[in-house]
Design goal:
- The complex is a heterotetramer of chains A (405), B (182), C (169) and D (376).
- Chain A folds into 2 domains: 63 residues, no CATH class; 305 residues, no CATH class.
- In chain A, helix 11 packs antiparallel against helix 15.
- Chain A is globular.
- Chain A contains 15 helices and no strands.
- With 405 residues, chain A is mostly helical.
- Chain B is mainly alpha-helical.
- In chain B, strands 1-2-3 form a 3-stranded parallel beta sheet.
- In chain B, strand 1, helix 4 and strand 2 form a beta-alpha-beta unit.
- In chain B, helix 1 runs antiparallel to helix 2, helix 2 packs antiparallel against helix 6 and helix 3 crosses helix 6.
- Chain D is an alpha+beta fold and 376 residues long.
- Chain D is globular.
- The chains are: A mainly alpha (405), B mainly alpha (182), C alpha/beta (169), D alpha+beta (376).
- At the C-D interface, strand 3, strand 4 and helix 3 of C face helix 1, helix 8, strand 5, strand 6 and strand 7 of D.
C-alpha cells in the first residue's frame, strides 16, 4: 500500500478499516466467539453433561437459540450476567436474528439467484468458486470488493456520497429489528412493530435520491429521481394492502399478534388481492426486475449506483438484499401465517422455508420479464394497485363485520 | 532471511546499540506477522479476485459478438464468476478489448481504463488489438492497444474462438494467483 | 470512363425512363451507360437539383440509396454519383438510376440534394469528409467518421497514401 | 489525441430544465456507438448520433489489394453477416471480370446467406432482450445461435469468418453430412421459434414496451430511405430478393412479412418471421440443388474491364449494395459500400425525438444498427 500523503488517502484508509470492522466483526469474530466460547458453557450450564453419554449431541446446539431452555438465574451462567448470552440484545442485534444471520442468508440468496437464473437459461452458473457448485461465489465477490480501491469522484459531495451505504445498512438493519422470526427469536417487541416497519421503509427513497445527487453524475441523478418516483408511488398501495391485514387481525399492529391471528386461516386466502398488491409493491421497493427502473443498465449505466466502487458498492448491494429478505419475511408474517405449521418441523424452520419460497417468487420474474417503463409503472401503481388494495380493504371489513373471521 | 537481516543490522549504524538479540527478535516478529496475517490475507484477496472478474461493457469492434457467445449458454463464462456485461465501469476490474481500436476510440479506452478502480486487468482480444490484424495498413487503426493501456493477456485469432478467450481468463487467473497484494 | 456495351435488351421501364429524361432535359444530360436495371446519367453541378427533382417527381425515384465520391487525379476532377431507388414507382423497384456530376478538384463545390432527398444526409456528410467535398446547402458537414483530431488531407483522395504502404505497393 | 469538449461530456449543464446526456461509447445501451440526447423531464427533445468509433478505412484499403485479397478484410466489417457483405462484392467483381458462376455455387451462396441471416437475427434478438432488461431473451437465442454456427462451420470451415462467396463461385462444396444435420437443426429450431413467440413476444410487458413505440410511418420510411426490417415493418413489402432477384430467389417460394403498425413490435415480428422463411428457403435449396462444379476458373490476378458495377442484395439487415469502379487493373479503383446500418441510422434521431428515455434502447436496437458495419 502506498504511503499516506494527503488527507484523502488517510480518510480512505480509515474508511477501509471501518468497513473491515463492520464486516469481519459481526460475520466472523462474533460467530466464532459464540460457537467456541459461549456455546460449550451454555450447554454445560443447562444440562448435566456428566449424566449424558460421552458422545457430544450436536442437536443440543439448537437449544442455544431457545431462551426458554435456559436458566438465567443459574449463578454459573455468568455469560448471561455479562450480557453476552444468547438472550442478550448484543447477540440478537449482531448475530442471530439480526445482521449476521440476514447478511449470510442474503449472500446465499445472491448465489441461489444466480444459480436459479442460470438454470432457467440453460447455463451452469457459478461453478468453480468454492468447489461445490460455486457455493462461495458471493464470498469471492465480497473479498474482491473488500480489497478494491475506493474512488470518490472529484465533483462528488464526499460526505453524503460516503454516508449512503451506512444509511442504507442502518435502515435495512432497523427493518430487521422489528421483524420476529419465531415466537422466541426476535430483537424487539413492540405493539406497533408493523407501523415501525412501514415507517422505516419510507427512509429508502430519501437515501437513493441522496445517492443520486451526491454522485454528481447524470445517470445517478436520473436514477435517483426515478427511484423517488417509483418508491413514493408504490408506498401508498403497500400501506393500504397492509391495512386489510390489520383489519382482519382485529386491529393489531403487532406482527406477533398478526401471526397469532392467523392460527385458523392464513390471511392470503381472505386477502388475496392485498397479497398480490403487496408482492408487486415490494418488488418495486427492492427494485427487482421487472421493476428495476432506477438501475436500468441499458438506459442509465447503473442508475443511482453508477459511481459507487468497491466495498461501498458491496455494502449497498448487501443492504438491498437484506431489504429483500426483510420484505419477504414481512410477506410471510402478514399473509402466510409466519412460523405456524404442523408440529414436527420447528417454528423457526417453518418461517425460513416460507421466507425462502417467497424470496424465490421475488426472484423468478427476473427470468421471463422485460423491464417496464416508468410511466407504465406509475400508472399501474396509482390506477390499479390502489384500487385493488382498497377493494381488499372492503372485503376485509365485510368479513370482519359479518363475523366470519 | 533472518541471517541476512542480522548482517544488515550489524553493519548498520544501530548495530552497536541494539545488539544481535533484539534484531533477531524483530526479524522473527516480521516473519511471524508475514506468515500469520499477510499471507492469508493475500491468499484471500487473490482468491476473491480470481473468481470475481467483472468485465467492463466496452465494445471496441467486431470481436464483441464472440464475447457475447462466451457469456452464452454453450461457453457460459459465469462458471468462473465472470458476468456477461456489467453496468458501471466503477465496479469492474477487467477490460476486454474486443478487437480493433481506432484512433477515435483510443483516448476513450484510456479514459475508461483510468476511471476504473485498482486492481484492474486488461485482455487484448483478437489480432486487431494485438498488432492491427488485417487493418495493419489502415489510416485509422492503432497497431496494438498496448500503446494505450497495459495488457495482461493477449488472445490471438480473428476473431478468437470462445475457447481461446476462456483460456485467456484462466491464464489471467494464474497471473493473479501469483500476485503480491498491494 | 467509357460505358461497357449492354449485353441484353433493355426492358420497357428503362426505355421509358431514358425517353422521359431526354424529353424533359434534352441535351443537358449525357447517358453514360444503360444496362438492364442500371442507368447512369451525367449532369453538370448546376443542373443537379433540377434533374434530381425531375427524377423524384416525374420518374418516381423516391429515395437515395448511396452517394459515391471518386477522385480522378488525371482529370483533376471528383465525381459524385447519387444512386436513386424507387419503392412506390410501378415496376421500378429493380431499377437504380445513377446521377453523376463532376466537380473540379481545386474547388470541389456542388449543391446538396438534402432538400430533394432527405435520405442523402449522412451519405453526403460521409463523402464530404472523405473527399473534402463541400455540399452547399447541407445543414451540418462536421466530422462524422474520422477522429476529431484528424489532421491530414481527406483519406479517400488518391493523393493520400496509406501509412502502412510504400509508394507503388 | 484528445477528446473535444462537446456538449454532454464535461459539464453538468442544467439550463431551461434540459439535461444533455452522452450515451456511449462505454454504455451498456450503446455498444460501439455514441449519441448525445437532450432530455426534458422524461422526454427526449434532441438526439445527435456520433458514429465512427469503428471506422477502419476498409474502402481505402481495398484500393491496395486485388479483388481476392480484399475479401477477408471486408468480411470483418459485418461479422454477424459475413457472407452477405461478401456476396454483392463478388457479384460486382464477377460482372466486371465478365464471368458467370456455376448454378451449384449460386445455391450454396443462397444456403450460406440464409444461414447468416438467421445468425444475425438471433444475435439481434439476443441483444434486444438484454436491452429490454430480459436476460433469458439474451441467453436462449445465443444458445440456439450455436447450432447455426455449427452448420456454418461444417460448410465454411470456420466459426464466423468463412470467406465463402469468393469471386468465381464458392470456396468449397457441401460436405455430405450437412444435409442431415441441417434438417435436424431446422426441425428443432422451428419448434423453438414457436416457444420464442409464445414466451418472449406474447409477454404482456414486452407488448407494453414495444407496441406504439418508435412509430415510423410508411411515407417517411420511404423518403428517409430506410431498408430491411425497418422498411418492412413500416408496411412496405420490399425485399431485394423479390424486387431484383439474384441467384435463384425467383424460383423459391417464400413470403416477405410486413406490418402496418410501423412500430418496434412490428420490427421484432419481422425478424422472427424472416428466420422461419430463411429455413424454408434453405430446405428448398437443399432439395433443388444440382450437382456440378462450384467454382469458375479464375486467376488470382484476374483483369477486369474498364467500367463500373452497382450490385445489391438483401443482407440480414437490409439492402447491401456495392459500387465498384474499375480502371481495368487487378485492383479496384474505388469501392463504395452502402451498408444497411448506415441507411437506417437516419431514422434514429427521427424516432428518438419525442419518445421516453426508457424507450431509447428498444428503439435504437430495433433499427438493427450495427456500428461496425456502418462505420466500415
Amino acid at each position: 500500500m502506498a504511503a499516506i500523503t494527503n488527507f484523502e488517502d488517510f480518510a480512505k484508509r480509515i474508511l477501509k478499516i471501518v468497513f473491515w470492522l463492520l464486516i469481519i466483526l459481526p460475520m466472523v469474530i462474533l460467530p466464532l466467539f459464540y460457537i467456541f466460547y459461549v456455546l460449550p458453557i451454555e450447554i454445560s450450564c443447562n444440562f448435566n453433561v456428566l449424566n449424558c453419554s460421552q458422545k457430544i449431541d450436536w442437536s443440543l446446539a439448537l437449544y442455544m437459540f431457545d431462551p426458554t431452555k435456559m436458566n438465567p438465574l443459574d449463578p454459573t451462567s455468568y455469560i448471561s450476567q455479562l450480557g453476552l448470552g444468547a438472550t442478550s440484545p448484543l447477540f440478537k442485534v449482531s448475530t442471530f436474528p439480526g445482521l449476521t444471520f440476514a447478511a449470510l442468508l442474503s449472500s446465499m440468496v445472491i448465489w441461489y439467484e444466480r444459480k436459479l437464473l442460470a438454470k432457467m437459461q440453460y447455463r451452469v452458473g457459478p461453478l468453480y468458486a468454492g468447489r461445490i457448485e460455486g457455493i462461495l461465489q458471493s464470498f469471492a465477490d465480497l473479498f474482491k470488493l473488500l480489497f478494491k480501491e475506493i474512488v470518490i469522484p472529484a465533483k462528488a459531495d464526499a460526505l453524503f456520497f460516503i454516508s449512503v451505504p451506512f444509511a442504507l445498512m442502518a435502515a435495512s438493519g432497523a427493518l430487521l429489528a422489528v421483524i420476529p422470526i419465531s415466537p422466541t427469536n426476535y430483537i424487539a417487541l413492540s405493539p406497533y412493530s408493523l407501523l415501525i416497519a412501514i415507517a422505516i421503509l419510507g427512509f429508502f427513497p430519501i437515501i437513493t435520491v441522496l445517492a443520486g445527487w451526491a454522485s454528481s453524475n447524470k445517470f445517478s441523478f436520473i436514477g435517483g429521481i426515478r427511484a423517488l418516483y417509483q418508491m413514493i408511488s408504490y408506498e401508498i398501495p403497500l400501506i393500504i394492502s397492509v391495512l386489510s391485514v390489520v383489519i382482519l387481525a382485529g386491529g393489531s399492529l403487532d406482527l406477533m399478534g398478526i401471526v397469532n391471528a392467523q392460527s385458523k386461516i392464513w390471511f392470503i386466502i381472505p386477502a388475496l388481492l392485498a397479497a398480490i398488491v403487496f408482492y408487486l409493491t415490494a418488488m418495486a421497493e427492492v427494485e427487482r426486475i421487472p421493476f428495476d427502473i432506477p438501475e436500468a443498465d441499458s438506459e442509465l449505466v447503473a442508475g443511482w449506483l453508477t459511481e459507487y466502487t468497491s466495498m461501498v458498492f458491496g455494502v449497498i448491494n448487501l443492504a438491498i438484499y437484506i431489504k429483500l429478505y426483510a420484505l419477504s419475511s414481512l410477506f410471510t408474517l402478514l399473509f402466510l401465517g409466519g412460523w405456524q405449521g404442523p408440529a414436527p418441523i420447528p417454528a423457526l424452520a417453518w418461517f425460513l422455508i416460507k421466507t425462502l419460497i417467497v424470496m424465490t417468487i421475488f426472484i423468478i420474474p427476473r427470468g421471463f420479464n422485460p423491464r417496464v417503463r416508468l410511466d407504465q409503472l406509475i400508472g399501474l401503481g396509482w390506477l390499479w394497485l390502489i384500487g385493488l388494495s382498497f377493494a381488499n380493504v372492503f372485503i376485509a371489513v365485510i368479513l370482519r363485520a359479518s363475523g366470519l373471521l | 532471511m533472518v541471517a541476512e537481516q542480522v548482517e544488515m543490522k550489524k553493519s548498520g549504524p544501530g548495530a552497536a546499540r541494539d545488539g544481535p538479540g533484539l534484531s533477531i527478535l524483530v526479524g522473527k516478529a516480521k516473519e511471524v506477522i508475514q506468515q500469520a496475517i499477510v499471507d492469508p490475507l493475500t491468499y484471500l484477496a487473490n482468491w476473491g479476485r480470481i473468481y470475481s472478474l467483472w468485465p467492463v461493457h466496452l465494445e471496441t469492434a467486431c470481436c464483441s459478438i464472440e464475447f457475447g457467445a462466451v457469456s452464452g449458454p454453450r461457453f457460459d463464462c459465469e462458471r468462473y464468476g465472470i458476468l456477461e456485461a456489467f453496468g458501471s465501469l466503477r465496479q469492474c476490474d477487467l477490460v476486454v478489448v474486443h478487437g480493433t481500436v481506432t484512433r477515435k476510440m483510443a483516448p476513450r479506452l484510456r479514459w475508461i481504463y483510468d476511471q476504473m478502480p485498482e486492481p484492474k486487468y486488461c485482455i487484448a482480444m483478437g489480432a486487431c488489438s494485438i498488432t492491427g490484424g488485417v487493418y495493419f495498413d489502415s489510416y485509422n487503426v492503432l497497431p496494438g492497444v498496448d500503446q494505450v493501456v497495459p495488457v495482461d493477456v493477449y488472445v490471438p485469432g480473428c476473431p478468437p474462438r470462445p475457447e481461446e478467450l476462456i483460456d485467456a481468463f484462466l491464464l489471467l487467473q494464474d497471473k493473479i494467483r501469483k500476485q503480491k497484494i498491494r | 470512363m467509357s460505358a461497357p456495351p449492354a449485353k441484353t435488351e433493355l426492358r420497357q421501364e428503362e426505355k421509358a425512363i431514358l425517353e422521359a429524361l431526354s424529353s424533359k432535359l434534352g441535351s443537358r444530360i449525357t447517358v453514360a451507360y444503360s444496362k438492364p436495371n442500371r442507368i447512369k446519367i451525367i449532369v453538370s453541378p448546376i443542373d443537379l437539383i433540377e434533374v434530381a427533382t425531375c427524377a423524384r417527381d416525374d420518374l418516381h425515384f423516391d429515395q437515395c440509396a448511396n452517394v459515391t465520391g471518386t477522385d480522378f487525379p488525371k482529370d483533376k476532377q471528383i465525381e459524385v454519383t447519387y444512386h436513386l431507388g424507387s419503392i412506390e414507382g410501378a415496376g421500378l423497384r429493380r431499377i437504380i438510376l445513377a446521377i453523376a456530376c463532376r466537380v473540379p478538384s481545386a474547388t470541389p463545390e456542388l449543391p446538396s440534394l438534402i432538400e430533394v432527398y432527405p435520405s442523402v444526409n449522412y451519405h453526403e456528410r460521409e463523402q464530404a469528409e472523405m473527399l473534402g467535398l463541400v455540399f452547399k446547402g447541407h445543414p451540418n458537414l462536421s466530422r462524422f467518421l474520422l477522429p476529431e483530431d484528424w489532421n491530414d488531407i481527406p483519406p479517400m483522395l488518391k493523393a493520400y497514401r496509406l501509412p502502412g504502404r510504400l509508394e507503388g505497393e | 489525441m484528445s477528446i473535444p469538449a462537446e456538449a454532454g461530456l464535461y459539464t453538468q449543464a442544467v439550463d431551461d430544465d434540459k439535461l444533455t446526456v452522452s450515451i456511449g461509447p462505454q454504455h451498456p445501451g450503446a455498444g460501439h456507438f455514441r449519441f448525445t440526447i437532450t432530455v426534458e423531464g422524461d422526454t427526449i427533445v434532441d438526439a445527435v448520433p456520433d458514429p465512427g468509433y469503428v471506422h477502419r478505412g476498409a474502402e481505402k484499403q481495398t484500393e491496395y489489394r486485388n479483388y481476392l485479397q480484399s475479401i477477408p478484410m471486408l468480411e470483418r466489417s459485418s461479422l454477424t453477416d459475413v457472407t452477405n457483405i461478401i456476396m454483392p462484392y463478388s457479384m460486382a467483381a464477377e460482372e466486371l471480370m465478365g464471368i458467370e458462376i456455376p448454378p451449384r455455387a449460386k445455391y450454396l451462396r443462397m444456403i450460406m446467406s440464409e444461414n447468416q441471416r438467421i445468425l444475425s437475427h438471433l444475435y439481434w434478438m439476443a441483444i434486444q432482450g438484454i436491452f429490454l432488461g430480459h436476460s433469458t431473451s439474451f441467453m436462449w437465442p445465443m444458445g440456439d445461435r450455436e447450432m447455426f454456427i455449427d452448420l456454418g462451420q461444417i460448410l465454411g470451415g470456420a466459426r464466423v469468418t468463412y470467406s465463402f462467396a469468393i469471386p468465381g463461385g464458392v470456396r468449397n462444396d457441401l460436405p455430405e453430412e450437412f444435409k442431415g444435420r441441417a434438417i435436424k437443426t431446422f426441425n428443432h429450431f422451428e419448434r423453438r421459434l414457436v416457444d420464442y413467440e409464445r414466451i418472449f413476444y406474447n409477454n404482456p410487458l414486452f407488448l407494453k414496451r414495444t407496441q406504439g413505440v418508435g412509430v415510423l410511418p410508411r411515407k417517411e420510411a420511404i423518403s428517409l430511405g430506410v431498408v430491411g426490417q425497418t422498411l418492412r415493418a413500416s408496411n412496405v413489402k420490399s425485399d431485394v430478393r423479390i424486387d431484383e432477384p439474384y441467384n435463384f430467389y425467383k424460383e423459391m417460394d417464400f413470403e416477405v412479412p410486413s406490418f402496418d403498425t410501423c412500430d418496434t413490435w412490428a420490427r421484432c415480428m419481422v425478424h422472427l418471421i424472416e428466420m422461419r422463411q430463411s429455413m424454408k428457403i434453405m430446405r428448398q435449396c437443399l432439395d433443388k440443388m444440382p450437382s456440378g462444379p462450384v467454382r469458375a476458373k479464375l486467376s488470382p490476378q484476374q483483369r477486369t474491364i474498364v467500367g463500373e458495377a452497382y450490385t445489391r442484395i438483401e443482407a440480414a439487415r437490409g439492402a447491401m449494395s456495392f459500387h465498384i469502379i474499375s480502371d481495368g487493373s487487378t485492383k479496384p479503383y474505388r469501392v463504395k459500400i452502402s451498408v444497411p446500418s448506415m441507411r437506417n441510422l437516419i431514422a434514429l434521431p427521427r424516432l428518438l425525438i419525442g419518445s421516453h428515455v426508457a424507450d431509447m434502447p428498444a428503439i435504437y436496437w430495433s433499427l438493427d444498427y450495427w456500428p461496425v458495419e456502418a462505420d466500415k
